[in-house]
Amino acid sequence: MGVVIPLEEGKNKQASVKPLVDLTKADMERVNQLILSKAGSDVQMIPEVANHLISSGGKRLRPMLTLASASMFGYDGDHHIKLATSVEFMHTATLLHDDVVDESDLRRGKSTARMIWGNQASVLVGDFLLGQAFKMMVEVGSLEALDVLSTAATVIAEGEVLQLSVAKNMETTEDDYLQVIRAKTAALFAAAAEVGPIVSNTSKAERNALKSYGMNLGLAFQLVDDALDYGGKAADLGKNTGDDFREGKITLPVILAWRRGTAEDRAFWREAIEGGQSDDANLERAFALISRYNGLSDTIARAQHYGMIARDALAPLPASPWKDALLEVIDFCISRVS
């Protein structure tokens, strides 16, 4: 099920996170050691639940953004290690909470923590990780970095609640949707990229450049994720294709198909999304309608637009391998649909 959208031929098709992985390898080893240390607890279930998700194969893109955005300005201390670990813990906590809210069964191709240990354990271990994240932020001693990350935590929570309020509501606009993903996803990308320059004591302009880069990269990343739910493969997604449809999530491919469709098409969407009629037959019809009204290709076009804004945000910065690696991450995020 689903249609894989090919992108234009060119560099996007060959894009990789490998340059960023290679540049941050030594620091990421330190981050991984700190992750294991800070996920430990005398309460046996805490490390079991935490390590289930932490070791599940995510690329850890967000902490790599923190490491890269500090190192590109010549930072040589260790505060960026603790901040990168804090970012990863915030992300992991969000995933644990998300899976409970969304009643998800699969995460990165494995059973979710809530399916193994239950909803209560998932929520509480997520809270433990958030607590550890904030302890590390305090240890760094930068009020600015603490302000950026704590603000991001608040915005993410607001995004979660906003998504609940628009779930299964076909009157949701594209602006509503963008508000949700800006809060739920892009805010942490932006914070991850901004705290690196903060501990590097760079200029306000350089800090803002990385913040803008992270925000727009996050928007592009989530747009592609939402397109993949209707046009990808389960193996690539780490979840079942069509999960957003089954959960009644209003994402851009659905919004575009709804607004461009006929009265009959809109009646279908109301029945399927608002009425919870999300069986396989209706999922197939949803795929067909999204394809008919260019819901996937136009969602990818939006992602490319935000990718260009992220690219332009870095344009004034001096050339370096770090900058090149961050630019290639943009292409990689979008090329996941190729």
Architecture blueprint of SSEs:
Blueprint: H1 11-14, H2 18-23, H3 25-38, H4 45-54, H5 61-71, H6 79-102, E1 106-107, E2 110-111, H7 113-117, H8 119-140, H9 143-166, H10 174-199, H11 204-231, H12 234-237, H13 243-246, H14 252-260, H15 263-274, H16 280-292, H17 295-314, H18 321-335
Antiparallel strand pairs: 1-2
Helix pairs in contact: 3-6, 4-8, 5-6, 5-10, 6-8, 6-9, 6-10, 8-9, 9-10, 10-11, 11-17, 11-18, 14-16, 14-17, 15-16, 17-18
Identify the notable features of this structure and list them briefly.
single chain, globular, two-stranded antiparallel sheet, 338 residues, metal-binding, 2 strands, magnesium, mainly alpha, disordered N terminus, Farnesyl Diphosphate Synthase, transferase
Question: How would you describe what is shown here?
Answer:
Helix 8 runs antiparallel to helix 9. This protein has 338 residues and is mainly α. The protein contains 18 helices and 2 strands. The two termini are 16 Å apart. Strands 1-2 form a two-stranded antiparallel ribbon. Helices cover 74% and strands 1% of the residues. The model is unreliable at 1-13 (pLDDT under 50). The relative contact order is 0.14. Strand 1 (106-107) and strand 2 form a beta hairpin. It has a single domain (11-332), classed as Farnesyl Diphosphate Synthase (Orthogonal Bundle). The protein is globular and about 60 Å long. The protein has helices at 11-14, 18-23, 25-38, 45-54, 61-71, 79-102, 113-117, 119-140, 143-166, 174-199, 204-231, 234-237, 243-246, 252-260, 263-274, 280-292, 295-314, 321-335, and strands spanning 106-107, 110-111.
